[in-house]
Specification:
Two copies of one chain form a homodimer. By secondary structure, the first copy, chain A, is of the alpha/beta class. Chain A folds into three domains: about 170 residues, MoaB/Mog-like domain (Molybdenum Cofactor Biosythetic Enzyme, Chain A), CATH 3.40.980; about 80 residues, Alpha-Beta Plaits (2-Layer Sandwich), CATH 3.30.70.2860; about 160 residues, Maf protein (Alpha-Beta Complex). Chain A is about 40% helix and about 25% strand. In chain A, β10 and β11 form a beta hairpin. The longest helix of chain A has 23 residues. The radius of gyration of chain A is 28 Å and the shape is elongated. The mean pLDDT of chain A is about 90. Chains A and B meet through α2, β2, α3, α7 and β10 of A and α1, α2, β2, α3 and α11 of B. β2 of chain A pairs antiparallel with β2 of chain B.
């Protein structure tokens, strides 16, 4: 089955919202082995919608619509499809009753246009809407499956999960299982990673290997198909092993994890607490860590020492260091990491100082960054980075590199 | 000009990311009066991409591509378009030099596949990429404008704003000017706001009034059309005045501003410095403030006192307060705000303490939050909030409310 997802709604074409419904449905369809080859977005215009359907009919045998099932004049998805397929609209009594019940419940007057929401195409399978008024529907006409979903995600998601998924699984003749796993890498560029595994990428069939770069990271999605899902997992294991033999040092985790989650797990498993001293990052490191529930077990606290006055008086960096080397220096990063560890009585201290831009500072270029790591009983290390990008990109990369270096240091420790 | 936006990338069809580039560009194009009639998404497949282009050529005279300009074999957007339009690819020397420079700067080896990123279509206008390697391009062939952008939003957004927008404005034979202005509100719900201005919403024609809710804020976009842009602005002024007479107390700023930007401007204009003491927010307030360039003029520093130990020993909250009232209390918020102001010798101290969840804390419900504001020479105020939502939503709303309360306090001061 090859699918096309057609999003209907002028709010999408005006950029008021992103087409997250297409993202959601694509992910769901991939999981049950349905290929999605196109997404289309069209406004609340019957002629352009019909054109889009004609185009889709030539290239897909599953056409999924989202949006345009509501009560207003703008909502014309099912009217257009009904005309095109020659399937008249009839009132679905169950849907009508539940709409009337809803208005009684919220004690509002039911305006006549709401009745329109209970109209469905004759001969279609109704997909119940447990979180809204307009039902969805599914109908097969001349070897093409059409499925209509409401636009609001809080109605669409449960409708897919509770009703549409089963409908689709019954229609699929394929009994093949699809398993996938994402490998996450940090500290290696996309092109370098691909060069290291070029032969694997060129000869991939099953499992497939899909690289994706974003946010300073690179990921590889490994996807295997097999009637037995255990065997599909083994096939992925084997490819993963080969990849990690080549670029293992840059690998840091699986699937939806992040550097800060991995860092937090590592700190918890080693029973270590941490504190941060942050200049250019302004609190971003501790903010990222405390965004995870359970941060209380590892983060004691932080000092955001944006002014040198705070570096000196609150954190305790020596005035000599600030005077002789400046705040953007190896020496300052070292003292910041050591001082915060002592101040907060934590096992680990991490520091961030540098130039986020847009202006040079102390004669140091934008992107000059020092990350200090102080661990009780070990020599303090300072990493010097030269980063590029906007102010915000530099700050975010600084924190990612900090997590990366500290993770490495913790893993080396055993 | 009628536009179609074609997003290229299998990661979109697999649902790994949402097509936020189409959203961004649609919003930008609407602002300069270009209608977007279709969005299309197609995978990294040359034949299907060519089919999508053929379809677009029949219905648009501006075709915009996003993604597929990178160094890998997957990236085939410009190769496919170049073949289709009969415009050979040639190396752009400036782009090549900047790629080589980039690799030198970050001290990484430049793999040969990176050279591919410097290839551009002969005869095209280059759109410089200030935040990445692959340049964008624009070319007109047989009455159709083609524009190619890189996929990463960090590269695409500035490329559009700094280079592509002007290119498009030059191509437009604009007669009517479209002016728009966004009014931003905080502390009022979308339905309450709409109720207050219901009659205006119902009778809108020119200017139009478009409400949009998101991220705990509500905005109204006023858009007016007129041959004279000054008159269009006056038309907007008049509607704005009526709206602000009704819901003025919730209004905080225009267009792309944010509560933290308004707060920073207010602090700068009053010549005041600030410091924050953060418990549940974990540094989010100072992180948001330092994300803005120029933060050095107002933020002295912050203490993230996640553990009570840090509240007491580093910040100086009395042990009596922690013992008798707990960390999540009016009393603790008051002392935190006062202590941080004194510790950092700032004019203003702000504090955040509360329960972000997922668990109750000190017997206090998730969402219980106290925000303290201490200003030199005035009595410290503490605001008690009861918020709902996820851990991250509670933290973000806490910071927004903090900015909102402090802005009000600063504005009352004169």
């Amino acid at each position: 089955m090859n699918a096309e997802i057609i999003g209907v709604g002028s709010e999408l074409l005006l950029g008021q919202i992103a087409n997250t419904n297409a993202q959601y449905l694509s992910k769901q369809l991939a999981e049950i082995g349905i290929n999605v080859y196109y997404h289309t977005v069209v406004g609340d215009n019957a002629n352009r919608l019909k054109d889009a359907i004609h185009t889709a009919q030539k290239r897909a045998n599953l056409i999924i619509f989202t949006g345009g099932l509501g009560p207003t004049k703008d909502d014309l998805t099912k009217e257009a499809i009904s005309q095109l397929l020659g399937k008249p609209l009839v009132t679905d009594e169950e849907a009508l009753q539940s709409i009337e019940l809803y208005f009684k419940k919220v004690k509002r007057v039911m305006t006549p246009n709401n009745k329109k929401q209970a109209l469905v195409m004759e001969g279609s399978t109704i997909l119940r809407n447990d979180y809204g008024m307009a039902p969805g529907m599914a109908i097969k006409v001349e070897e093409i499956e059409y499925m209509l979903f409401p636009g609001p995600p809080k109605e669409l998601y449960p409708m897919y999960e509770n009703y549409a998924k089963e409908y689709l699984l019954n229609k699929l003749e394929v009994k093949e299982r699809i398993e996938s796993r994402v490998l996450r890498f940090f500290g290696i560029g996309e092109s370098q990673l691909e060069t290291e595994i070029e032969d694997l990428l060129e000869n991939q069939t099953n499992p497939t290997i899909a690289p994706l770069a974003g946010d300073g990271e690179v990921t590889l999605r490994l996807t295997a198909k097999h009637a037995d899902s255990n065997i599909a997992q083994q096939m992925i294991d084997e490819v993963e092993q080969v990849i990690r033999q080549r670029v293992g040092p840059y690998f840091y985790g699986y699937n939806q994890t992040s550097l800060q989650e991995e860092l937090m797990s590592a700190l918890i498993s080693k029973g270590k607490t941490i504190a941060s001293a942050e200049s250019l990052t302004g609190g971003l490191f501790s903010e990222r860590l405390t965004s995870l529930s359970g941060a209380g077990a590892v983060l004691k606290g932080s000092i955001v020492c944006y002014h040198n006055e705070i570096k000196q008086h609150t954190l305790g960096v020596s005035s000599d260091t600030l005077h002789n080397y400046g705040a953007v220096s190896t020496q300052c990063a070292k003292e910041m990491a050591e001082q915060i560890r002592v101040k907060c009585s934590s096992d680990v201290g991490i520091s961030f100082t540098g130039v986020a831009g847009p202006k040079v500072q102390e004669g140091k270029e934008v992107g000059t960054v020092f990350v200090g790591i102080s661990v009780a009983g070990r020599e303090t290390t300072v990493h010097h980075l030269q980063l590029t990008g906007s102010r915000q990109a530099i700050r975010q990369r600084t924190v990612r590199y900090g997590c990366h270096y500290l993770l490495k240091a913790l893993n080396e420790e055993n």
